[in-house]
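Entry 14. Structure prediction run on the chain below.
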Amino acid sequence: MKLNLLSCVAPKPDKRAIANCIATIAISVDESLSNELTTILLEGDLIDIEINPKNSSSSFRALRKLGIDYEIVD
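Output returned:
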Protein backbone atom coordinates (compact mmCIF):
# COMPACT_ATOMS: atom_id res chain seq x y z
CA MET A 1 0.00 0.00 0.00
CA LYS A 2 1.40 3.39 -0.98
CA LEU A 3 1.06 6.53 1.10
CA ASN A 4 1.90 10.15 0.48
CA LEU A 5 3.06 11.88 3.64
CA LEU A 6 1.87 15.44 3.13
CA SER A 7 2.99 17.44 6.15
CA CYS A 8 3.58 17.40 9.87
CA VAL A 9 1.12 19.56 11.79
CA ALA A 10 2.57 18.96 15.26
CA PRO A 11 3.52 22.22 17.02
CA LYS A 12 6.95 20.80 17.98
CA PRO A 13 7.68 17.84 15.71
CA ASP A 14 10.00 15.20 17.15
CA LYS A 15 12.38 14.53 14.26
CA ARG A 16 13.86 11.40 15.83
CA ALA A 17 10.43 9.87 16.55
CA ILE A 18 9.24 10.61 13.02
CA ALA A 19 12.38 9.05 11.49
CA ASN A 20 11.97 5.95 13.67
CA CYS A 21 8.31 5.67 12.69
CA ILE A 22 9.11 5.91 8.97
CA ALA A 23 11.91 3.34 9.29
CA THR A 24 9.54 0.99 11.14
CA ILE A 25 6.46 1.20 8.92
CA ALA A 26 7.95 1.72 5.45
CA ILE A 27 9.10 -1.12 3.26
CA SER A 28 12.75 -0.91 2.11
CA VAL A 29 13.62 2.20 4.14
CA ASP A 30 16.64 2.08 6.42
CA GLU A 31 17.58 4.48 9.22
CA SER A 32 19.66 6.89 7.12
CA LEU A 33 17.00 7.15 4.43
CA SER A 34 14.29 7.69 7.04
CA ASN A 35 16.32 10.58 8.50
CA GLU A 36 16.59 12.14 5.04
CA LEU A 37 12.87 11.64 4.35
CA THR A 38 12.00 13.19 7.72
CA THR A 39 14.03 16.29 6.88
CA ILE A 40 12.26 16.58 3.53
CA LEU A 41 8.85 16.18 5.20
CA LEU A 42 9.58 18.80 7.86
CA GLU A 43 10.72 21.24 5.18
CA GLY A 44 7.20 21.01 3.74
CA ASP A 45 7.69 18.67 0.79
CA LEU A 46 5.62 15.59 0.06
CA ILE A 47 7.21 12.16 0.41
CA ASP A 48 5.86 8.81 -0.67
CA ILE A 49 6.41 5.52 1.10
CA GLU A 50 5.13 1.99 0.78
CA ILE A 51 3.82 0.16 3.83
CA ASN A 52 2.85 -3.43 4.49
CA PRO A 53 -0.96 -3.73 4.15
CA LYS A 54 -1.08 -6.20 7.04
CA ASN A 55 0.18 -3.50 9.44
CA SER A 56 -1.71 -0.59 7.93
CA SER A 57 -3.92 0.20 10.91
CA SER A 58 -0.99 0.44 13.33
CA SER A 59 0.94 2.48 10.75
CA PHE A 60 -1.93 4.95 10.39
CA ARG A 61 -2.23 5.22 14.18
CA ALA A 62 1.51 5.94 14.54
CA LEU A 63 1.38 8.64 11.86
CA ARG A 64 -1.65 10.33 13.46
CA LYS A 65 0.03 10.23 16.86
CA LEU A 66 3.01 12.13 15.44
CA GLY A 67 0.78 14.70 13.71
CA ILE A 68 1.59 13.60 10.17
CA ASP A 69 -1.03 14.17 7.49
CA TYR A 70 -1.14 11.46 4.85
CA GLU A 71 -3.17 10.27 1.89
CA ILE A 72 -3.60 6.74 0.62
CA VAL A 73 -2.49 6.40 -2.99
CA ASP A 74 -2.96 2.68 -3.61
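Helices lie at 15-25, 31-42, 56-65.
Filed with the rest of this week's runs.
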